[in-house]
Amino acid sequence: MHEMSLAEGVMQIVEDTAKRENARRVKLVVLEIGRMSSVEPEAIKFCFEAVTHGSIAQGAALEIVSVPGAGWCMLCAETVPMQELYGACPKCGSHQVQATGGTEMRVKEIEIE
Amino acid sequence: MCTVCGCGAGETKIEGVHAKPHEHTHVHEDGTVHTHTHDHGHDHDHAHSHAAALVGAHAHSHHHGDGSEHSHDHVHSGEHAHSHGGEHHHHEHGVAGDLDYGTGPAGAHVPGMSQARMVQIEQDILSKNNTYAAANRQNFDERGIFALNLVSSPGSGKTTLLCKTIELLKDKVAISVVEGDQQTSNDAERIRATGVQALQINTGKGCHLDGHMVGHALERLQPADESLFLIENVGNLVCPAAFDLGEHHKVAILSVTEGEDKPLKYPDMFRAADVMLLNKCDLLPYLEFDADLAEANARRVNPDLTIFRVSATSGDGLSAWLDWIQSGLEAQRAKRSESVDALKRRVAELERQLAAK
Known about the structure:
The structure holds two protein chains of two kinds.
Chain A: H1 2-20, E1 26-34, H2 41-52, E2 61-67, E3 70-73, E4 78-81, E5 97-101, E6 105-112
Parallel strand pairs in A: 1-2
Antiparallel strand pairs in A: 1-6, 3-4, 3-5
Helix pairs in contact in A: 1-2
Chain B: E1 22-27, E2 33-38, E3 42-48, E4 63-64, E5 70-76, E6 92-93, H1 105-108, E7 117-124, H2 127-142, E8 146-152, H3 158-169, E9 175-181, H4 186-192, E10 197-202, H5 211-221, E11 228-232, E12 249-255, H6 262-265, H7 267-272, E13 275-279, H8 291-301, E14 306-309, H9 318-356
Parallel strand pairs in B: 2-10, 4-6, 8-11, 8-12, 9-10, 9-11, 12-13, 13-14
Antiparallel strand pairs in B: 1-2, 3-5
Helix pairs in contact in B: 2-5
């Protein structure tokens, strides 16, 4: 249950922020999840609902901004799109590709009132 | 809580039941640090009777549009720590039209259209651990300590390798060891038998050490300046990869009795490591293990990986590994004396300025 504990981590950040801002309610939570971060958006939505139940964020909408995978290929010396972490470069087939985007797991912003 | 596998402290929250056990760390007389959890079962029965259906007339936090009588139980514990009336108790049960989150400012993302506002957070979900890890790393650097985090699956020979490494190095450098396991202090006892100080951390239900636990271990062990600090993580090739402890390098240990494709199956760990030790190489003649293939697989997920083939039992190949540790120690010492020299220069400069006044 990878996503359940991630959702817990999200909740902690959301609760801390809402408290600091004296929020009455959290209406929206925006996450940035990289496509290569091995987080299943559907699973995290389900878990988010479960962990926010009874909290300040109960009923809050969850928006997931999906960040496409990108990497720097050492041989091509350019940024190439990536489908999987540690995958091959789509141009030259080399595995010497350093992921530069798409591994994010961040709470981007929240909407409160 | 582990963000990888979701283990740890039974933190699963389901449907309004907050079963968040409280975590305690005890240090026993023999130096064993023991982390365990217990459930605080606080039952709060709130019974609210709403006689009339006056929508919006209720100033308190239980709003019922239909005026129904409503009672619910909360089991709060641990971190939620007795903060009644805090944010955990704002229950908003649908005052007419109030819960329509699908439209309006929420959908349009425009702050200021109502009382609602957007708050930028841009915070990594693992940021809390990373803060502890950064503090540990600063502590190590200020004191010229070289810290390694040893990770592998259970049974790869981490502890035997550690014991051997310690035996060969203990006359040259002060060494402290942190042992992470779910249960028992067997490993710390094995390390103490070599004559160096060791501290056992039992993670209980947890599957990895985190920055916070290692921070406590540092306080407890008080490692000497310019010494070697070795952390043996919980035997697990998945979760410890995500948790920075403040170490200078993760060292992954793969033994030849495992599969050559392990680096491909568990790439995160081999990616996070800077060094891989291929252990139990004395057994290679008796196995069908292809050591070159294992190395190629490891380099496929991490081209910069430094690999040493060793046998902790026979001692073969250990000298290269020990040399690598020595150069790490020297680099830390050099860095420290550099910053001490810089500070001395700064003090001298300030003293000169004061004298001039």
